[in-house]
Design goal:
There is one protein chain. This protein is mainly β and 395 residues long. The protein has three domains: 164 residues, Jelly Rolls; 82 residues, Immunoglobulin-like (Sandwich); 99 residues, Immunoglobulin-like (Sandwich), CATH 2.60.40. Helix content is 7%, strand content 38%. The protein contains three helices and 29 strands. A hairpin with a 2-residue loop joins strand 16 and strand 17. The longest helix has 18 residues. The chain is elongated and about 100 Å long. The relative contact order is 0.11.
Length: 395
């Protein structure tokens, strides 16, 4: 437990330095939403809980010409430097709205400005609706502020500026509100919205465990098996393939940390059932050498028995078994192949398996699966001499 706590502290320090911003504004982006009205964004199923990307911006301004057919939300707590009367402006392409709350609670926000068509970047004086009425803000308090923008096609931009007490009204091109007066809103310790679930799989298959967060910004992941870190398992999902019987009963969970804190997921169990379906011999053919047959199985098989000469018999070979050799090479599922080298003609290849699907030597009992090499040529093209039966190997 002491080690785990130390590891958590190290990860937290790393995440804090990676985020490296305590001031700024959170920008949440929602892709693949048509239309240019803010209502197209707010009515989208993914809004507001499932943004596609999140960023911390250094000022109340989004990148220009960012994408098409998307919407975005920028939100923060505004920290007024002095008590007095403040006026706000918004510019955007396409439509946008600006909200300000009477306190830190978003539930108290009201719309104070908007863009009904579009403006150029930092063009503050294009439409009367861009400018808010004067608002009295108190130094020492924080106020929730939020801008929504929807882009259809073409150019796009979004920015918000203000007039502080005693300052002149901003001219077109004036800078947006800087990060000094903004604290990102909506971030905090990681919150897991989808926990990993139990997985049952047949040996040789694959298993995936996944966590989902309310916010991914700055989050790091470390998957654990039975409480121990899994090297390299640092994504929101952990994938195992192929699974073995020895993996059964493992408990998998994820430790998540960001600049604001950390959390552990629930544990999910992996159950691995034995593969009791024997593989089948699916193809035999020649790749060009008349003394080599390549044997294809329906799934990966045990390497030791697949490469053992005694696991195969060749009929009609005029004593070829005295010169039979085999070797194999693992291939991605669902195939495994072995090559049989012999000296004379081959008509049939026989492979024997036990109940678990392991290849057996011909002298042992088991299910005998035969494949006629003279009918297997179509699996390997026309590599055998055309005047011979396709798939039949020649010495």
């Amino acid at each position: 437990m002491l080690f785990l706590r130390a590891a958590a502290v190290c990860l937290l320090i790393y995440a804090s330095s990676a985020l490296a911003q305590t001031n700024g504004i959170l920008r949440e982006v929602y892709y693949n939403i048509n239309g240019n009205a803010v209502a197209n964004l707010t009515s989208a199923p993914k809004f507001p809980a499932s943004p596609d990307e999140e960023f911390i911006e250094s000022a109340f301004e989004a990148p220009s010409n960012f994408a098409d057919n998307y919407g975005q939300r920028m939100r923060a707590l505004l920290v007024p430097p002095v008590t007095g009367s403040y006026v706000f402006w918004i510019s955007s392409d396409d439509n946008s709205v600006l909200y300000l709350s009477t306190d830190e609670d978003p539930a108290h926000k009201v719309q104070i400005a908007s863009v009904g068509t579009w403006t150029s970047s930092r063009e503050w004086n294009n439409q009367a609706s861009q400018k808010s009425l004067a608002r009295t803000l108190t130094n020492g308090f924080r106020y929730y502020i939020e801008a929504l923008q929807k882009e259809g096609g073409g150019g796009d931009n979004l920015a918000v500026t203000w007039q502080k007490p005693g300052d002149p009204a901003p001219a077109n091109g004036a800078a947006p509100i800087p990060r000094t007066f903004l604290v990102p809103y909506g971030l905090g310790p990681p919150v897991i919205t989808v926990q990993p679930t139990n997985v049952t799989v047949v040996e040789g298959g694959s298993a995936t465990f996944t966590v989902r967060l309310s916010h991914y910004l700055g989050a790091t992941f470390q998957w654990q098996r039975n409480g121990a870190d899994i090297p390299g398992a640092t994504n929101s999902s952990y994938f195992i393939s192929p699974v073995a019987l020895g993996d059964s009963g493992g408990a998998f969970g994820c430790f998540v940390v960001n600049a604001y804190g950390s959390t552990n997921s629930s544990s999910a169990m992996l159950t691995v059932n034995p593969d009791v379906t024997p593989p089948t011999l699916t193809a035999v053919g020649s790749l060009g050498d008349p003394k080599i047959l390549t044997v294809i199985f329906s799934e990966p098989v045990e390497a030791a028995s697949a490469t053992a000469p005694g696991s195969y018999t060749i009929d009609d070979t005029d004593g070829a078994e005295d010169n039979l050799h085999a070797y194999g090479e693992q291939r991605p599922r669902p195939r495994h192949h072995a090559e049989c080298h012999f000296a004379e003609h081959a008509a049939d290849i026989h492979a024997r398996f036990d109940a678990a699907g392991h290849l057996l030597r011909p002298s042992r009992a088991g299910a005998d699966r035969a494949f006629d090499a003279s009918r297997a040529g179509d699996h390997f093209g026309n590599h055998v001499s055309p005047d011979k039966p396709r798939g039949r190997a020649e010495s």
